[in-house]
Amino acid sequence: MAVETKSIAPFPKTASLQQGATAVDDVTRALPHALGPEKSLLSSMLQDPQEYIGVAIEEKLTQDHFYLPSHSTLFGFLLELFEAGTEVELVSLVQRLLDRGLLDRVGGPASLTDLYTYAPSPGHFRHHLQHVKDKFVLRSIIQNSNEAIAQAYDAPDEVAALLDSVEAKVLAIREGSETNKAPTIKQSVNEVIEQFQALLAGEKGAQGISTGFEELDRKSNGLKPGEMFVVAARPSMGKTSFMMNMVEHICMDQGKSSMVFSCEMSAFQLVQRLVFSRAKFAMSQLSRGYTPSKGDLQRIKRVAVETSAAKLFIDDTPGISINELRAKARRKKRDEDIQFIAIDYLQLMKSRTKQAENSREREIAEISAGIKGLAKELSIPIVILAQLNRGPESRTGKSLGVPRMSDLRESGAIEQDADMVGLLYRTAYYAENDEEREAEAGKAELVLAKNRNGETGSIPLTFIADLMRFETGMPARESEA
Known about the structure:
Layout: E1 21-24, E2 27-30, H1 35-47, H2 49-58, H3 69-84, H4 90-99, H5 108-116, H6 125-153, H7 159-175, H8 185-200, H9 214-220, E3 228-233, H10 239-253, E4 258-262, H11 267-278, H12 284-287, H13 294-309, E5 312-315, H14 322-336, E6 340-344, H15 354-357, H16 360-378, E7 382-387, H17 391-394, H18 413-417, E8 420-425, H19 434-440, E9 443-451, E10 457-464, E11 469-472, H20 476-480
Parallel strand pairs: 3-7, 3-8, 4-5, 4-6, 6-7
Antiparallel strand pairs: 1-2, 8-9, 9-10, 10-11
Helix pairs in contact: 1-2, 1-3, 1-6, 6-7, 7-14, 10-11, 11-13, 14-16
């Protein structure tokens, strides 16, 4: 069977490169392909559709994996018949292809008969399938490399953005994610029904990742893949503590591999907080001359061992750029299958595009959109902290210190991109005297101001200052009253 090729001009050239061939030393070469294994796969599917089309679906074989257009068209048609539960046999298949105007595109009746009589060994199906997949990977590498070379010769201004794009495409080839990007409406509906049935059955797995805060979990139904949760507050409200309390619960209590990007605090400081907060030991006691008891030391040692064993990765690069963060997150997703990312905090990150150089608002918008895009790309939830402007301090009366979503600093894009926005504040911080400060001590609140997939509202919390720890509900003395 002849294979068509298309010639292109040799490198270097700034013109766009054509698909179908590559040039090395001015010699036109066909793209990698495996027509024999392609023919073997289709023959097996025609002879035993229920067995082998099912295997192909399980192995995520798509029309794009076939090099020959006639093979790709026939495979797509066989998938359609299989999903409809229609029997596949030669006479009716020819007629159906003729009715759809596809018979000539698959090579006519003679090609179909040839495929039926090809009769490969059934035991070689998966081996041939891997051959076809490998050739598709090679073609994808060549295509993406050609595009990258052409773009590089065009001398783009945004070199970092081009590098980020090239890396994303190469990783997509490795992970095979390109074959899963466009689910059919039938697949999406089935997923919705499956989740609904799981929720009816009370299965916890049907929900997103638990945050460790019961009321927040109830309102949000957990942190879900692809979602961006912005936790915003004024300085000294405890944003980092709140974030690390979630990280602790997700990573250590649920055993999910997690990654923290900290632009403000060092890895040492974060781990120190995590260990002593979880061990319920206040470091401030040491400065007052307190000698830890045997029980304290045992708890600290036990938590230290637990923390060492946790799949928690901390990157404390200051002023990290959105491109660098995405590159590191992709690698950790590939190597460690991280399930959750936390970032502290948005306004300390950078975007190094030309547009961002002249506008801080544009820079924040690019960072926000980049994080949301990363959450969708990796299909994991991302929690990111953000600063509020001075709006809460400018209010009076009972509204003093109460944050609003419009207080999000420097860009409305954060509000737009986020799936959830939680505004954290502690009333004691705005107390006007010692008596009022004592009465409000420990009271905290997370105002869930935006929730795309659930209810909004206020979530009462308790802040234990000595332990830098938030807990669900109001302080104990308030409950007892």
